[in-house]
Amino acid sequence: MAALRGVSRLLTRRALNTAPKRGYADEMSFTFAAGNQVFYDAQSVRQVDVPSFSGSFGILPKHVPTLAVLKPGVVTVFENDGNVKKIFVSSGTVTINEDSSVQVLAEEAAPVENIDISAAREILSKAQGELSSAATEQARAEASIAIEVGEALVKAAE
Fold first, then answer.
1. Residue 18: inside a domain
2. Are residues 66 and 125 both part of a single domain?
3. 54 near 67, Cβ under 8 Å?
4. Which domain holds residue 146?
5. Do 32 and 108 lie in a common domain?
6. Are 23 and 98 in contact (CB under 8 A)?
C-alpha cells in the first residue's frame, strides 16, 4: 500500500511539473460573426458581456477558458476607446481560449439600434399564435423557441 502511495505522489508531481503553464494576456482579441455579418474580426476590446443559459456573464482579459451556449439577448462590447456596442443575438456559441482570444458565433445578429420595435412585437405575436395552434410536440417546441427569441428581441428594442 505504501508503494502505491509513493507511485501516486510521483505521478502527481510529474503531472504537475509537465502540465502546460497558462499564460495571460493584457488585452483580449475578439471575433464576433453571424451568418449575415462580421461585427468584429480579431479586434482588441476591453470587455464583452454575453447572455448565456447559465446566466449572463462578463468576459475580461485573463478569463478562464470557457465554451458556452448563447441564449437570445444582447451581447455588449466595451471597446478600448470607451465606445459601447450592443448587438442582439438569437442564439450561438461563445468560446474563450487560453490566449485570451474570444469568439462569438451567432445564428443571427443585429445591432440593437437597427431593431424595429413594431416588427419585433409582430414576431412575438405571431410566435404566440403558432404556439396556441400547435398540433404536435415539435410544433410546440419550435413555437416556444420563437417566443423566447421574440421576447428577447422586444426587450432589446425597448
1. no
2. no
3. no
4. 115-157
5. yes
6. yes
